[in-house]
């Protein structure tokens, strides 16, 4: 199964955090699952890291390198992803999360999240 991890799950997984839900941990380590991160998550981390937000302590360059080194595939942001955001209902206001939702829908891959608001969207979203 192709799994696009949202930014929070990526940060928890890369840090080996106990905050990572067990269901996410099981899917991430599952044989045959393809793990994917979005450039949008690196962008979000870069912006929030530069602002000094404590949740985003990870250096975005090191995060990206670590994810690639651990077998994650990188998903670029394309025009169809950006335009698909316009068709989403206004359930969630965070632009990064909305882009991740659109990417999952356009690409037909499962967005893995611990965020209950993201999970309210229709489509290939799995709350852990």
Helix content: 40-55%
User: What is the end-to-end distance?
Assistant: 15 Å
Q: Summarize the helix and strand pattern as letters.
A: EHHEHHEHHEE
Number of domains: 1
- The average pLDDT score comes to 93
- The coarse overall form would be globular
Report the uncertain regions: none
Sheet having the most strands: 5 strands, parallel
Proportion of β residues?
Answer: 5-15%
Assembly type of the chains comes to single chain
In short:
The protein is of the alpha/beta class and 128 residues long. The chain has helices spanning 7-15, 22-28, 39-50, 60-69, 79-84, 95-107; strands spanning 2-5, 34-38, 73-75, 110-113, 125-127. The chain contains six helices and five strands; from the N terminus they run βααβααβααββ.
Walk me through what this model shows:
With 128 residues, the protein is of the alpha/beta class. The protein has six helices and five strands. The two termini are 15 Å apart.
Task: Present the secondary structure layout.
Layout: E1 2-5, H1 7-15, H2 22-28, E2 34-38, H3 39-50, H4 60-69, E3 73-75, H5 79-84, H6 95-107, E4 110-113, E5 125-127
Parallel strand pairs: 1-2, 1-4, 2-3, 4-5
Helix pairs in contact: 3-4
């Amino acid at each position: 199964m192709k799994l696009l991890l949202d930014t929070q799950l990526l940060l928890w997984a890369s840090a080996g955090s106990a905050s990572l839900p067990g269901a996410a941990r099981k899917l991430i380590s599952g044989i045959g699952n393809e793990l994917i991160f979005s450039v949008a998550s690196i962008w979000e981390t870069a912006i929030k890291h530069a602002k000094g937000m404590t949740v985003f302590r990870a250096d975005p360059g090191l995060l990206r390198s670590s994810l690639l080194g651990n077998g994650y595939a990188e998903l670029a942001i394309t025009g169809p992803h950006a335009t698909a955001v316009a068709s989403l209902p206004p359930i969630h206001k965070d632009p990064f999360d909305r882009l991740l939702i659109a990417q999952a829908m356009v690409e037909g891959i499962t967005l893995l999240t611990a965020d209950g608001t993201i999970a309210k969207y229709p489509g290939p979203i799995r709350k852990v």
